[in-house]
Task: inverse folding
């Protein structure tokens, strides 16, 4: 008997058929991979499994028993835990309080915080995560918050656990911890659903896989290891993809952007680098290495303690993001949910919010027709999956939200420097290919493109040069001809660096 079975599950939203008769099953002690492009229906299915959505049709069976969840609490009570791509946490509560939320230990009618910290500390140590149970979530990085969510699921003693893009913000070391945990849970007989756009992870962890496209189940492969990579990609996107990175050599211009001695409260050591016109420069390093902090300094989102930024030889005043945007420097942030989108606004408004300052008629009125045309053009160009341009962006998948942010900056006139911090986090392989093409098109126009990514094959595949950071400083630089996974990791990991020097 299957531990988990989806039988003809359907779900509709206004203007969208999110799931259309999806049927497959997973056994105890099995890792079932779910693959598909953004908007294919994978996350919607997990929200049905987790009690957040009710299906419009079909049946959900767990250990042969049909289940009808009215809430997430019902799903948890039935032994189901979901680790969502968009993390579910209370920022002002501690690690221990988030992990044990709803079941905190009490003493004499009051929460026993000491007991909660001990319980969570023991579980964190068991899975190999070094975190202070008393730290507030607001003080932690995205990667650390992700590990808290994973710990929460394990402590619920769930028998069915679903992971939605769990490594999208994890460092190399944290991902290894997660992989060991997944294998341990499988050995314990748990049923695991694993969603990822990183095919190497799926091959390493999954026993079988089911592929979605446009809300429908396309195929289930019972033995993941026997399916060629090219077949998986073709099943997902409905077409063949030859070179996913689409790297195109191009002549580089003179130095266009210079960062000289930049430092801040978070980056006390002065950092310097430069980018030539038409160059795609990559930044790699573990989570916490200082990559995002350096990009925020460059963009003016964090105050500088010293140093300067020069564009075409002219200093860029430290006037915050508004000054950077006016100079032609823009940033797609790592945390799109908190820093990138206006959640209650429409797709069109999110695309136009910056460049509309150029469109004001007489300085007073919006040119709605022009904004509508711009939004429609970028929705088509970036293949943003939305019922219409007026859809609230919060209702889009994470990958489609990321495309909207990218469209916002591509719409900026006078773009000179495009900074992309984890631009393809949570984005499917087909959309990645499209974004890589856009990156190379932008570079070919003479702009500087800076790509920050913790996905090493990505930065090796699309960049002309790679800068590696470790512990808040630049540890090395690799031209494309010398860049390899071994060389990059030797610069990013202290233990690798020591071994390389031995």
Result:
């Amino acid at each position: 008997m299957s531990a988990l079975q989806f039988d003809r599950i359907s779900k509709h939203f206004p203007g969208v058929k999110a799931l259309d008769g999806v049927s497959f099953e997973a056994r105890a002690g099995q890792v079932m991979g779910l693959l598909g492009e953004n908007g294919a229906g994978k996350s919607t299915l997990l929200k049905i499994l987790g009690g957040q959505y009710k299906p419009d049709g079909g049946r959900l069976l767990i250990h042969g028993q049909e289940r009808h969840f009215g809430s997430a609490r019902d799903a948890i009570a039935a032994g189901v835990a979901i680790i969502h791509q968009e993390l579910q946490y209370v920022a002002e509560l501690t690690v221990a309080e988030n992990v044990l939320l709803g079941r905190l230990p009490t003493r004499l009618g009051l929460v026993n915080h000491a007991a909660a910290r001990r319980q969570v500390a023991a579980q964190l140590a068991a899975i190999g995560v070094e975190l202070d149970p008393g730290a507030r979530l607001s003080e932690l990085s995205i990667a650390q918050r992700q590990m808290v969510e994973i710990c929460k699921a394990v402590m619920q003693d769930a028998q069915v656990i679903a992971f939605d893009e769990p490594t999208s913000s994890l460092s190399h070391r944290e991902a290894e911890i997660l992989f060991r945990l997944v294998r341990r849970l499988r050995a314990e007989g748990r049923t695991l659903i694993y969603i990822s756009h990183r095919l190497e992870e799926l091959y390493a962890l999954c026993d079988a896989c089911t592929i979605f496209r446009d809300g429908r189940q396309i195929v289930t492969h019972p033995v993941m290891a026997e399916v060629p990579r090219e077949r998986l990609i073709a099943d997902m996107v409905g077409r063949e993809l030859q070179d996913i990175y689409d790297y195109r050599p191009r002549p580089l211009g003179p130095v266009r952007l210079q960062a000289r001695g930049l430092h801040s409260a978070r980056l006390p050591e002065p950092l310097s680098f430069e980018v030539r016109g038409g160059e795609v420069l990559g930044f790699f390093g573990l989570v916490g290495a200082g990559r995002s902090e350096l990009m925020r300094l460059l963009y003016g989102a964090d105050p500088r303690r010293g140093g300067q930024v020069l564009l075409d030889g002219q200093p860029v005043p430290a006037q915050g993001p508004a000054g950077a945007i006016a100079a032609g420097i823009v940033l797609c942030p790592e945390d799109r949910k908190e820093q990138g989108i206006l959640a209650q606004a429409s797709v069109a408004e999110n695309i136009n919010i910056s460049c509309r300052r150029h469109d004001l008629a007489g300085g007073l009125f919006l040119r709605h027709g022009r904004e509508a045309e711009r939004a429609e053009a970028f929705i088509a160009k970036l293949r943003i999956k939305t019922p219409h341009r007026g859809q609230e962006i919060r209702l889009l998948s994470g990958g489609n939200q990321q495309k909207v942010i990218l469209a916002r900056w591509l719409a900026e006139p006078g773009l000179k420097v495009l900074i992309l911090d984890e631009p393809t986090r949570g984005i499917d392989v087909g959309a990645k290919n499209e974004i890589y093409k856009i990156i190379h098109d932008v570079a070919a126009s003479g702009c500087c493109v800076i790509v920050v990514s913790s996905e090493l094959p990505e930065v090796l595949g699309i960049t002309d040069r790679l800068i590696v950071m470790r512990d808040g400083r630049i540890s090395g630089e690799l031209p494309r001809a010398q860049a390899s996974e071994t060389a990059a990791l030797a610069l990013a990991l202290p233990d690798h660096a020591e071994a390389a020097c031995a």
